[in-house]
Write a structure and sequence with these properties.
142 residues, 6 strands
Length: 142
């Protein structure tokens, strides 16, 4: 049986364009996501960033796999020096003056189970915090 992916869904009081820009503009992403040196919403584009707990940072290596402007952004997600690859998908739904965002992170079971940092619960907590808190605050402050 294949494990369920982590999914987090939120609706924002923001236009589709505003949410899409927050997900794809590196300067906006730095305000709520991670400190990306470069980001382009183009299939095949690779971007890297450090993230994790204060005492243990991991180099994330991601490659964009799908872009449908203002609808979908997907990329692979792996850690430098560790086995496994997972896939993150952002899907946007226009709901008039609001935008619903669904994030799905699949393939987490491919990461080493011996490392507690890669536990599914940490991804649930991380995405919930990023989307429910950081992105929401960023969008509402603009």
């Amino acid at each position: 049986m294949k494990p369920n992916p982590v999914s987090v869904e939120r609706t924002f009081e923001a236009s589709l364009t505003k949410v899409w820009n927050a997900l794809t503009n590196k300067d906006e992403m730095r305000s709520w996501y991670f400190d990306l040196k470069e980001f382009k919403p183009e299939v095949g584009f690779e971007f890297r960033f450090y993230g994790g707990r204060e005492e243990r940072q991991y180099l994330h290596i991601c490659i964009i796999t799908e872009v449908i402007p203002q609808k979908k952004l997907a990329y692979s997600w792996k850690y430098d020096g560790y086995d496994g690859v997972s896939y993150v998908t952002f899907e946007l739904f226009d709901e008039g003056n609001k935008t619903r965002l669904l994030i799905t992170h699949a393939g987490l079971e491919s990461f080493p189970s011996s490392n507690p940092d890669f536990a599914t619960a940490n991804f649930v907590e991380g995405w919930t915090s990023l989307i429910g808190d950081s992105l929401r605050k960023y969008l509402e402050s603009k």
